[in-house]
Amino acid sequence: MDVEAVLQKVLQRIRPTDEERAFVEGLMGELRGIAEETTESLGLDVKPYFVGSLAKDTYLAGDHDVDLFLAFPLDTPLEELREKGLELGRAIAERLGSYEIAYAEHPYVRARYKGVKVDIVPCYDVESWRDVKTAVDRSILHNRWVIKNLEGRNNEVRLLKRFLKGINAYGSEIYIRGFSGYLAEILVIRYGSFLEVLKNADFMLRRKIIDPGNWLKHEHEVAMRTVRREAEADRPLIVIDPVDPRRNVAANLSWERYGVFYFKAHQFLEKPSEGFFFGRAKKSGSYLAELRRKGTHLVTLVFGAPDLVEDILLPQLERSARGFEKALSREGFKVLGWNVGHEGSKAFIMLEVDRREREKVRIKPGPEFFTERGQDFYRKNERVWIIGKRLFAEKTVKEDIAEVILELLEKNQVAMGKSVRENIRNAKIMLDYVPKELEDEAYLFLSREKWNLKG
């Protein structure tokens, strides 16, 4: 199947239908009305804005999350914005149904309305990057810039977003470190189409700097500070935010996620198929067979997951896994790889190691050589010597990796994430065995299918 035919088939699945569009437009109209009425009833000077993919019409079919921003005048003190913003958000949410308070830079409200998730976020009513006071303020400027520059290429953005989701490289959250939706929109605007973005995967990486707002010309000093800072941090891409020269839109993009995009872009252009957009079913197999094939061993720590959002929990687990890797290598075990995650209320750290046991030499002091016990000590030990009048021997003992881990934890010799430290101390340690619910995860980890670029 040629590439255009593939893209048309994919678009049929990811482009919102007319009914869906009507639902979304109706929903946003209702929410705007509720927000305006509630604002007026509280006597606040606040403008409601919709931001995100729904407002920019770059959303995928079935993905209707709403971002409703409540923009306060620039002269509002930050403390007042937080307090009044939360009060207004709550008042709006009470008219919608169920809601909860969530926390980012400042508190905001998460509600549900007609089966759709609605984030209600206070911000400042900014006109330029110089007005930005909180991290969320730029979203209004992002919206305006994308709507102004997209010029009908909405479906090209949809294709790129769906492709990135399909290859597991979408989302700038710290536990994914992939491409954000805004970055996908910028790349389509910069290169013109989904296919051109893929064709430029290599060029982008070599050129390194993308400056769609032409800041290097208009705000050279500020933009160069951003470039130097991000180059020093060794980012794969530096995309100077077209609405703010101080920011790299690709700051959270990791080398691993860009690498996945790089290879998959080449593979798709060589042999296009729908599979790239919707992900292939992960292979399954026996983790025990993998251990036999490789001759390695698996250590799994399972413990209660603290009540944290994923973008805090997963980095803490990763930090702890790296801590075990370092601590065990100091103790003579080779860690060949690690994997972390959580299933329901349980979190886990998996470590693939070269062996389960290590031999350790100990010096064993014995009795005086001229006694009966001395004779007995001499007969029982292989290497024996005298210091003064006492006998000493060298003893080789086998130590199990689980015992070593327990000792390391007891002596506080593993660097761990502070929010998971106590939970890990109470972990259940398993050797070459995992609970049934982690069998697939163990197989994907040990076989490297979880990250296999050719899979």
From TrEMBL:
The keyword Repeat does not apply. Mg(2+) binds at D65, D67, D119. It catalyses: a tRNA with a 3' CCA end + 2 CTP + ATP = a tRNA with a 3' CCACCA end + 3 diphosphate; a tRNA precursor + 2 CTP + ATP = a tRNA with a 3' CCA end + 3 diphosphate. It holds the Pfam family NTP_transf_2. It is an enzyme of class 2 (transferase). Gene3D superfamilies: Archaeal tRNA CCA-adding enzyme catalytic domain, Beta Polymerase, domain 2, CCA tRNA nucleotidyltransferase, domain 2, Poly(A) polymerase predicted RNA binding domain. Keywords: ATP-binding, Magnesium, Metal-binding, Nucleotide-binding, Nucleotidyltransferase, RNA repair, RNA-binding, Transferase, tRNA processing. A single active site specifically recognizes both ATP and CTP and is responsible for their addition. NCBIfam families: cca_archaeal. Catalyzes the addition and repair of the essential 3'-terminal CCA sequence in tRNAs without using a nucleic acid template. Adds these three nucleotides in the order of C, C, and A to the tRNA nucleotide-73, using CTP and ATP as substrates and producing inorganic pyrophosphate. tRNA 3'-terminal CCA addition is required both for tRNA processing and repair. Also involved in tRNA surveillance by mediating tandem CCA addition to generate a CCACCA at the 3' terminus of unstable tRNAs. While stable tRNAs receive only 3'-terminal CCA, unstable tRNAs are marked with CCACCA and rapidly degraded. This is CCA-adding enzyme. It comes from Thermococcus radiotolerans. The lineage of its organism: Archaea, Methanobacteriati, Methanobacteriota, Thermococci, Thermococcales. The gene is cca.
